[in-house]
Amino acid sequence: MARPAAADTRYLEQKNGKWRVTLAVPRELQGKLGTRLKRPLHTDSLAVANRIKWQALAELRAVIEHARNVTGKGAIIREAIELAAYRSRARDPEEIANLDDAIVDRAIELQGPVVGSEEDVDGGPVPIFDPEKERAALEFAEVAQGRATPIALYHPDYLNQSINKRRTKADDERSLRFLLAWCERERVRPTLQAITRKVAARFMDDLGGVAGGQSPVTLQKYVSRLSRFWQWLAKRDHVESNPWAGLRVEAKPTPHDELERPFTDAEMLALLNGAASPEMHDLMRIAALSGARLDVIVDLRVKDCAGGMFVFKPQKKETAPRQVPIHSELAAIIKRRAKGKAADDAMFPEWPAPRKVGSQRERSFKASNAFTAYRRQVGVDDVVPGKRRSLVNFHSFRRWFITKAEQADQAEGIIAAVVGHKRKGMTLGRYSAGPLLEQARRCVEAVRLPRQPSAKE
Question: What InterPro entries does the record point to (predicted)?
Fold first, then answer.
């Protein structure tokens, strides 16, 4: 519950029985301004101090902005945003009224002096203000009163609270940049209130041009990221609803012969018997005999391969690490790679994490590039005109594992549990804690690498 004006001491302290405003100085400016700025209010009434403190705060913030050499619209909007945050948390009518009075007073100050006048229809004088200052004052008031919240205001908080992978967060940032660029191009105000269902649909239809002609699947990904951001906003009452809900970028159905597919056995033999590096040979075999994705394999540590079990980190919609029995044909690889290493050491140190601070790339990025180059080198490729990706790629090992497990008559629910797919049916999908270890081991061992046919065959 918000504090009433009679008990609200935010930004206030007493000195000799009188109230004054106090404001912390950012660390980078403390050498220039000290640790706090203070301004006396010359009143011993807390209620009065709360009504008049906002103007003093604005003046102190102006001092800070000047010291930072930041002036103009950016500083004014930051001030308005801070006032809007206080106003959104206020529940006491008196406190809201005091804030609104302070906002109006500040807007009048920003509007500046009258620069002229004209007559209205009745012949009365109408004051004229500097157009730029008048627009700035209006924008300040709308932002401060919560009627024009900048689209990007809460996005950093959203990203900080998100548990998504770096790549997904990069998609979040990219989708917001596309939206802001489109708003500027179409002269749509970049505020949360301006993004209605109709505006969201217009953006979706124009997104291909804004994003540089990417595929419908990629465009839908950006729309979905914006929808998730608006869901987050709605849960916190920053917006009333999610205008992106249910919007879908239309895509032509992919013909059957253009779907990404598993490797054939002949392609598997070419890959497994080719002149790959030792680490690539190990990587391919683990993928083929576990059905795991590239990123989780590259991220394995020694302790994740102990006791005959892989412990793969959560991927996609998985909520917890996933245990998979280690195939008997992989035992020698695991023993060799773990030898002489500590529990937290990487099993694949050949592909370290990106060194660049803030990089959105996963550890598997270079491993993926290396595999693509090797795959093409041994002639394993399936390119369809007009499609960017080959129909076979590292994920084809995962598809091959699932195919071979199905051909070996393994139960669909067990295969799904091993590879981390959502399982169908309530019994296994909701109430089962997971298949028995022996069932999972039988499923894994049922998959065998193809062998080169002998001369007699």
Answer: CB, DNA_brk_join_enz, DUF6538, Integrase-like_cat_sf, Integrase_catalytic, Integrase_recombinase_N, Tyrosine_recombinase_XerCD
pTM over 0.90: no
Residues 370 and 407 reside in one and the same domain? yes
Tell me if 50 is assigned to some domain: yes
In a domain, 357, yes or no: yes
Q: H helices of 236-363, where?
A: 265-272, 278-288, 294-298, 331-338
% helix, strand, coil for the chain, step of 5: 50, 10, 40
Pair of tokens at residue 254: 């992919």
For residue range 163-195, list pLDDT tens digits in order: 887 788 889 999 999 999 999 889 998 899 999
What type of residue is 162? S
Phi, psi angles (nearest 5°) of residue 63:
-60, -45
Is 289 in contact with 330 (CB distance < 8 Å)? yes
Q: What are 340-371's pLDDT values in tens digits?
A: 999 999 999 999 987 776 566 788 899 999 99
Which of 2, 19, 5, 1 lies closest to 95, judged by CA? 5
Record the tokens describing residue 172, joined without a space: 């979040």
Whether residues 292 and 399 share a domain: the answer is: yes
Longest dimension (CA), the chain: 109
Are 431 and 294 contained in the same domain? yes
Q: Among residues 123, 144, 165, which one ends one of the domains? A: 144
Contact 36, 126 (CB under 8 A): no
DSSP assignment of 144-155 equals HTTSS-BTTTTH
CB 325 within 8 A of CB 309: yes
The pair phi, psi for residue 324, each rounded to 5°, is -135, 130
What lies within 8 Å, CB to CB, of 205 at 6+ separation is none
Same domain, yes or no, for 139 and 162? no
Whether 161 and 230 map to the same domain: the answer is yes
Q: Which domain holds residue 119?
A: 12-144
Q: How far apart are CA 48 and CA 5, in angstroms?
A: 9
